[in-house]
Design a protein that fits this description.
The structure holds 3 protein chains of 3 kinds. Chain A contains 19 helices and 4 strands. By secondary structure, chain A is mainly α. Chain A folds into 2 domains: 286 residues, ABC transporter involved in vitamin B12 uptake, BtuC (Orthogonal Bundle), CATH 1.10.3470; 116 residues, no CATH class. In chain A, the strands form 2 sheets. A two-stranded antiparallel ribbon of chain A has the order 1-4. A two-stranded antiparallel sheet of chain A has the order 2-3. In chain A, strand 2 and strand 3 form a beta hairpin. Chain A is globular, with a radius of gyration of 26 Å. Chain B is of the alpha/beta class. Chain B has 10 helices and 11 strands. In chain B, helix 7 packs parallel to helix 8. Chain C is built from 12 helices and 4 strands; from the N terminus they run ααααβαββααααβααα. The longest helix of chain C has 31 residues. The chains are: A mainly alpha, B alpha/beta, C mainly alpha. Chains in contact: A-B, A-C. The interface between A and B is large, with 43 and 54 residues.
């Protein structure tokens, strides 16, 4: 009988191992040395130290970041592990928040103590998630996505128009309609009230830590494997004893439960809930966090949440926003144009281009430079270079914006020196649009950024920053 | 003693095209049941098929492409429902059950087009198949209770044992490699290992030697024999390579256009005129 | 009776517009199995393009050209702008993902939709604009239909939409490129092996679908007056519903679905209340998805194991 599987190739496998390459190698080797527990401990340590070094309002920002991390971890279960595109996830978040707001405020006479409210709400959210998973038995992929999106819409409409539904009496103002529910009570456990930013921050941090550990364990268990198997090939998984429908329900339920829990905390910290908190915008925010960080990867999702939640804060203050914009511009430049001499050429070209434009424009038309520059370091620095428009700035900036977008697309398609040629006016136009409009419209900038992040990540690096590259056979 | 698997009068058509026609087959206590009621219905894909398999028996299903062999497998594992006829396991009908339920009853299969969990590691592929045999509840997994940890270890050890069947190829460093990094032959082996991990009594292999070179084919032939001898599986194999069929089969069944045209030992079937005609064309049996 | 006729005309008008938008969804899904979430924004930009042209030509009360010319120019501009955006979407947001997972293009589409909404907000602000159509085409002009008069604008919209749909059907069934589109919908690889330039066909599909949506946008502006940067979202959802109800991937299905949704909305608004119009339409979608996902005229997907 021949020997099965005795093979020289296999014997020498150890000699063929390849070490990390490139300039990220030392960091990655160090990262590997730390076991996952070590990385978590490091993260928790840094996060716990954070409030001591910052102002009170920044602690509030920290809470926002942690809440997004929690909700992203939950979404990761459904989208990242089980591969179910749930576009209605924001509704579970809203459900948890509204439920808590109703039972922990003066909206209704009922005042539930926290230790009762929270478990009930989490269970109810999980149940809702299980219900919403029922369509997933028959629908896959796109259809499921649409269905869940519609449910999210229905939730917002319901909450906004609750009193106006035909079978609801006028006295029962359950959801506060478009004005939401104000005056939500903070969490209170064992007589200890979580009524300051600091206390809520550590509460949220504790949850994040627990979720990370719990979910990591879950992923490494038969349930996690079953989820990933059902994502890989549902039919084959079913043949290998995986009860796929039950597991889809489980994924939805777990994700929904986490979202509901986060919702309650959100309501308590914001001291109120409003229908607009749970609209499409927040859904995109959650997805941006998961996609950017790396769907399927716990550290990735947390990192993504940090990046996505912190950005709007940066954008709010024109000075910081300016730094974000210009540093981002530099990073993009380096990434798109790898060679140093070309980077230098581009920068030089942009400067020259700017001066030319300025000279030409102010020659033709006085108003071209009459506008007031932003009161930030960089803006004042380049005040004499870029066109800060006075009148008609709206129209011109619009054209500039469109041209800048066209320019960006051209840069993607071009190569070699043509790329540089396209890049120069594009960068100039981007700076123009920024200084004249975007810098003081953080909400629009944020929206452009998040939408753009989703598109670019999918095209360039679908596995996100920390995810692993997937192979798919269609 | 009840046969493990029995097909009675199995018929299936797709959109007017008969794929299986009146098939009878018994994988049972060595008794072959013939149903001599040829129902000549024009539009069935699987037509009144009768088939039966004994425990520890290796039955090969051969036939030209399009004969309905994979459809037969799909009917047995519950992907399709038959139009007529019955499928019995241990004497009880399994028609209408989901593939997962049928898998839990002890039927495992591999796929003609390879359906591995490509982005999971080699070991995880095999471990994933142990779901039906394990019990850890969610909260036990989340908190990593001693019971859950113990079960995880057992599942991991079971996976290693299954993979060890293939020699050193799928062992050691290979365990943690993603399945997509495996060579074609290793992927086929992994799929068999994964099927074994469901703890089946009947193993259904769909063209296990497809695309393999002679050495690998020889290995597979030995392996299938070992699976039956050492582990006691009953095996139903679809195969095109006659060397493999000859080497492993206790019984061979030939299908053509969904109808069973021959059944018996390899020699009987290989020399049957209907089989020769099915493969080589009308009148080929006369030209010798 | 009058009321019923009025609602029917409303339904026909709405339905025609939804049909035009739904066609874009259906064609793209048929050819790429992709739900182009950003299609609603394509429609919205078309509406704004039309408005832009209207303004350049002096505005509804002070046109410098005859009305019919103005409207044709508005349609033309909308077609160009929408087609450009649609083609750009295909080239930059979807083409890189052609061989990727099924989820990736969806996420990209959502991101693109979001981005385009933000762009519109940046350029047009949140204020709505009005076509001010009564100044353009007096309400008194109209075609009598029994006890009511049908406003000329609505007649224009309905007739144009039907003409376009007929032209599209002829094109898809008779012309070379049209047949190529159908071939690629059936089996992309086989079509490529028959010598069809699949990339070009896909671009053409996006081009036509987007152009139609752009025209739809101008039509909405003409009939209902108000346009705003978020109009693409809800209209997009409803048109998508229409495409699914009719059978996504099927061109006649999109037309049928569009009309159905239009009538459903009109009758609901007329006989029940406008609060429920969205709910009814969405409810219709959920029912169809659960009962017959392939829609009224669609082909169920066959999967080979």
């Amino acid at each position: 009988m021949s020997q099965i599987g005795v093979d020289q190739w296999v014997e020498q496998s150890d000699e063929r191992r390849q070490d990390y390459q490139g300039w990220t190698a030392p960091a990655r080797r160090l990262f590997d040395k730390l076991a996952p527990g070590g990385r978590l401990a490091l993260f928790l340590l840094v996060a716990a130290a954070y409030p001591f070094f910052v102002r009170g309002s920044d602690v509030r920002v920290g809470i926002t970041i942690l809440l997004l991390a929690m909700v992203a971890l939950g979404l990761n279960v459904v989208v990242g592990w089980a591969g179910l595109l749930d576009l209605g996830y924001v509704a579970f978040y809203g459900f948890g928040a509204y439920f808590y707001a109703i039972v922990a405020s003066n909206q209704l006479p009922a005042h539930w103590p926290t230790w009762i409210a929270i478990p009930v709400i989490v269970a109810a959210s999980a149940l809702l998630g299980a219900l919403l998973s029922l369509p997933s038995r028959r629908l896959v992929g796109d259809y499921l996505a649409i269905m869940t999106l519609f449910f999210a819409q229905v939730f917002v409409e319901l909450v906004r128009n609750f009193e106006r539904l035909p079978f609801v009496s006028d006295d029962l103002n359950l959801t506060g309609g478009p004005n939401g529910i104000p005056g939500v009570f903070p969490w209170e456990l064992f007589g200890f009230s979580f009524n300051t930013f600091h206390r809520n921050y550590y509460l949220a941090l504790a949850f994040v830590g627990l979720l990370i550990i719990g979910l990591h364990n879950l992923n490494d268990s038969r349930t996690g494997r079953a989820w990933r198997a059902l994502r890989e090939d549902t039919l084959a998984a079913e043949h290998m004893t995986t009860p796929v429908n039950r597991l889809k329900m489980l994924a939805f339920a777990v994700g929904a439960g986490i979202a509901g829990l986060t919702g309650t905390l959100f309501a308590a910290v914001q001291v109120g809930v409003f229908p607009n908190n749970f609209n499409l915008f927040f859904l995109i925010t959650m997805y941006a966090a998961v996609i950017l960080g790396g769907s399927g990867s716990i550290p990735g999702v947390v990192l993504g949440a940090i990046a996505i939640a912190y950005t709007p804060e940066l954008l709010r203050d024109p000075g910081k926003a300016g730094w974000l914009f210009y540093i981002g511009l530099v990073v993009l430049l380096v990434v798109v144009v790898r060679r140093w001499e070309r980077i230098a050429a581009t920068v030089g070209g942009v400067i020259v281009f700017g001066f030319i434009v300025r000279v030409v424009a102010s020659g033709i038309w006085d108003e071209a430079t009459m506008g007031e520059a932003n009161d930030t370091f960089i803006s004042r620095l380049i005040d004499d270079w870029v066109l800060v428009l006075g009148a008609q700035s709206d129209v011109i900036t619009n054209y500039a914006f469109v041209l800048a977008v066209v320019g960006m697309l051209t840069v993607v398609v071009a190569s070699g020196w043509w790329k540089i040629a396209a890049l120069i006016p594009t960068i100039y136009l981007a700076v123009l649009v920024w200084e004249n409009k975007l810098a003081f419209q953080p909400s629009i900038t944020r929206q452009l950024l998040f939408g753009g992040v989703l598109v670019v990540m999918m095209a360039v690096r679908p596995q996100g920053l920390l995810g692993t590259k997937r192979v798919e056979i269609i | 003693m009840k046969p493990i698997l029995e097909l009675r009068g199995l018929s299936k058509s797709f959109g007017g095209l008969k794929v299986i026609e009146d098939l009878d087959l018994v994988v049972g206590a060595g008794q072959i049941v013939h149903d001599d009621d040829p129902v000549v219905s024009q539009k069935d894909v699987v037509d009144d098929l009768d088939l039966s398999i004994s425990p520890g028996e290796i039955v090969s299903v051969i036939g030209p492409n399009g004969a309905g062999k994979t459809t037969l497998f799909n009917l047995i594992t519950g992907i399709y429902e038959p139009d007529r006829g019955d499928i019995l396991m241990d004497g009880r009908s399994i028609v209408g059950l989901s593939p997962e339920q049928i898998a839990n009853l002890g039927v495992a299969r591999t796929f003609q087009t390879l359906r591995l969990f490509l982005n999971m590691t080699v070991k995880e592929n095999v471990m994933a198949a142990a779901y039906g045999d394990s019990q850890a509840r969610i909260w036990q997994s989340v908190f990593r209770t001693p019971a859950a940890r113990r079960e995880e270890r057992q599942i991991a050890e079971m996976a290693e044992r299954k993979l060890a069947f293939f020699g050193k190829r799928l062992m050691g460093y290979r365990w943690d490699q993603p399945a997509y990094s495996l060579s074609y032959a290793n992927r086929r082996r992994l799929e068999i290992a994964r099927a074994m991990a469901t703890n089946p009594r009947l193993l259904m292999l769909d063209e296990p030697a497809a695309g393999m070179n002679p050495a690998e084919t020889h290995e597979i032939t030995e392996l299938i024999g070992e699976l039956r001898d050492e582990v006691g599986f009953s095996i139903l194999v679809i195969e095109h390579d006659m060397h493999v069929v000859e080497g492993i089969s206790d019984r061979v069944i030939a299908l053509d256009h969904g109808v069973k045209i021959a059944e018996g030992s390899f020699e009987d079937v290989a020399t049957s005129p209907q089989v020769i005609e099915a493969y080589l064309g009308y009148g080929a049996a006369d030209r010798k | 009776m009058e009321f019923f006729l009025q609602q029917t005309v409303n339904g026909l008008t709405l339905g025609s517009v939804y049909a035009l938008i739904a066609l874009g969804y259906s064609m793209v899904y048929g050819i790429l199995k992709l739900l182009n979430f950003a299609h609603g924004e394509v429609y919205m930009f078309g509406a704004f393009a039309g408005y832009g042209v209207l303004t350049i030509l002096g505005g509804s009360s002070a046109l410098v050209v005859p009305v019919w010319l103005a409207i044709m120019l508005m349609f033309g501009a909308a077609m160009i702008v929408s087609a450009a955006i649609g083609v750009a979407l295909e080239r930059f947001a979807y083409r890189p993902l052609r061989n990727s997972t099924r989820i990736a293009p969806l996420i990209s589409a959502i991101g693109a939709s979001f981005f385009l909404q933000a762009a519109a907000l940046l350029m047009f602000t949140a204020n709505s604009r009005s076509y001010n159509t009564p100044s353009l085409i007096a309400i008194e002009t109209g075609i009598p239909l029994g006890p009511i008069r049908v406003w000329m604008v609505r007649v224009l919209v309905i007739v144009t939409a039907f003409v376009l749909m007929i032209l599209l059907t002829l094109w898809v069934n008779r012309s070379r490129t049209g047949k190529a589109v159908r071939a690629v919908s059936f089996d992309r690889e086989a079509a490529a092996m028959m010598g069809i330039d699949v990339d070009k066909v896909i671009v053409v599909t996006f081009l036509i679908g987007s152009a139609l949506a752009g025209i739809g946008g101008v039509m909405v502006g003409l009939v209902f007056g108000r346009i705003f940067h978020l109009m693409g979202f809800v209209a997009g959802l409803k048109a998508f519903t229409a495409a699914v109800v009719g059978g996504i991937g099927s061109i006649p299905g999109a037309m049928l679905g569009g009309l159905l949704i239009g009538f459903a909305e009109a009758y609901t608004t007329g006989y029940i209340s406008s609060t429920f119009q969205n709910l009814i339409v969405f409810g219709l979608l959920i029912v169809v998805l659960l009962v017959r996902p392939s829609g009224l005229l669609g082909r169920p997907e066959l999967v080979k194991v």
